[in-house]
Design brief:
This is tRNA 2-methylthio-N6-isopentenyl adenosine(37) hydroxylase MiaE. The protein is mostly helical. It is about 70% helix and about 0% strand. The two termini are about 20 Å apart. The relative contact order is 0.21. Bound molecules: fe (ii) ion (2 copies). One fe (ii) ion (FE2) binds next to helix 2, helix 3 and helix 6.
């Protein structure tokens, strides 16, 4: 059983064996994760613009985008450090499946962002556990980076949920309940590959 509590009450727990499958091709895993961090930054920047009438929220989102840009740079540096290259972006089937279920409004964009962050956080934790014995990714600086990413993404999940609840109140809480079931269905249906999700 996972000794891990995700920042949102996810309804499909990822089995620990997933991490072994994800670590089968670490270069692909890191490449995919670099693309995810870049998309997280772009998404946060777009949302910062949507909150232009709420300075506190837009500043929070701009800061979040900066953090994601920093993660993007550091994953690229890790690829470089291992002597690997950034592979082409194969797309993110998980995020695409969530977006296909979404309405057009801001509420779903915020809640999807929160869910992606929370799932990333769970999977980074599993990777951190499994990477400890890995011949390449078991190095202490890399494990420390995974832990840092996991904590940072947990904060992002809570920030997105907080923004949704501040703006949409009970509607956000009800919609998150609906989304937690959908996210569990989506994540259970995806094959395991060398990607975070
Ligand atoms: Fe990130
Ligand atoms: Fe994040």
């Amino acid at each position: 059983m996972n000794a891990f509590t995700p920042p949102l009450p996810l309804r499909a727990e990822t089995p620990a064996a997933w991490a072994e499958a994800a670590l089968a091709d670490p270069e692909a895993l890191l490449s995919d994760h670099a693309h995810c961090e870049k998309k997280a930054a772009l998404s946060a920047l777009t949302l910062a613009q949507a909150f232009g009438d709420q300075p506190r929220a837009s500043v929070l989102l701009a800061r979040l985008a900066e953090e994601e840009m920093g993660h993007f740079r550091r994953v690229l540096e890790a690829l470089q450090g291992f002597g690997w290259t950034l592979r082409p972006d194969g797309g993110n089937a998980y995020a695409q499946a969530l977006h296909r279920l979404a309405g057009k409004g801001l509420l779903d964009r915020l809640l999807i962002a929160a869910l992606i962050e929370a799932r990333s956080c769970e999977r980074l934790w599993l990777l951190e556990q499994a990477a400890a014995g890995h011949p390449v990714l078991g190095a202490a600086p890399w494990l420390a980076f995974l832990l840092e990413l996991e904590r940072c993404e947990a904060g992002h999940a809570l920030s997105y949920r907080g923004l949704a609840e501040e703006r949409f109140g009970d509607q956000a809480r009800a919609r998150l309940d609906w989304w937690l079931d959908r996210e569990a269905e989506v994540v259970r249906a995806l094959p395991w590959r060398s990607v975070v999700h």
